[in-house]
Q: What sequence folds into this?
């Protein structure tokens, strides 16, 4: 009899929880059952760490991208034209990076044509009352009438970014931020 790391005991018949044991081809030992809860717990811990690392990358990209948008638009709201001094206290909280199509759409979350500087008031009103017509007019003036079709088409794309793609985007927006 050999001990199972996930269960109390492991024999040729299986482990103490009734899962079938697997005989190793290379060594003369019995391996932990493939359905053993211990194996899944270890796998779950690795997946949780990977998710946590991925979320950290997303947060870092959000911060870098939003700061780029604020500086690109000179800390001026695209709707009401309010200007915030970037050196003032709480400037980052007063000036947001407002998304025309919400951040939940990953295809447009870090698209610079979908995001412009907005003061906190305009951004909050947009989330409550819907898209500000001044924002729509700005997009049409800046990018042409086709921008609305582009955004609505891209909105329905399903994308998933790998960690390396997120790191590339972080490096790209940091570089663009330095050139402003």
A:
């Amino acid at each position: 009899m050999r001990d199972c790391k996930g269960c109390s005991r492991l024999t040729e018949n299986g482990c103490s929880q009734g899962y079938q044991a697997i005989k190793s081809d290379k060594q003369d030992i019995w391996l932990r059952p493939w359905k053993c809860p211990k194996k899944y717990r270890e796998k779950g811990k690795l997946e949780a760490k990977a998710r946590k690392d991925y979320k950290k990358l997303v947060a870092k990209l959000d911060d870098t991208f939003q700061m780029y948008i604020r500086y690109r638009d000179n800390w001026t709201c695209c709707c009401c034209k309010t200007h915030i001094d970037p050196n003032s206290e709480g400037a980052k909280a007063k000036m947001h990076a407002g998304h025309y199509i919400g951040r939940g759409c990953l295809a447009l979350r870090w698209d610079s044509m979908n995001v412009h500087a907005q003061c906190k008031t305009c951004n909050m009103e947009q989330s409550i009352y819907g898209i500000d017509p001044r924002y729509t007019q700005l997009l049409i003036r800046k990018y042409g009438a086709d921008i609305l079709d582009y955004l609505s088409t891209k909105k329905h794309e399903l994308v998933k970014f790998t960690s390396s793609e997120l790191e590339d985007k972080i490096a790209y927006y940091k570089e663009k931020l330095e050139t402003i």
Observations:
- Helices lie at 37-72, 91-94, 106-109, 120-129, 133-143, 146-154, 163-179.
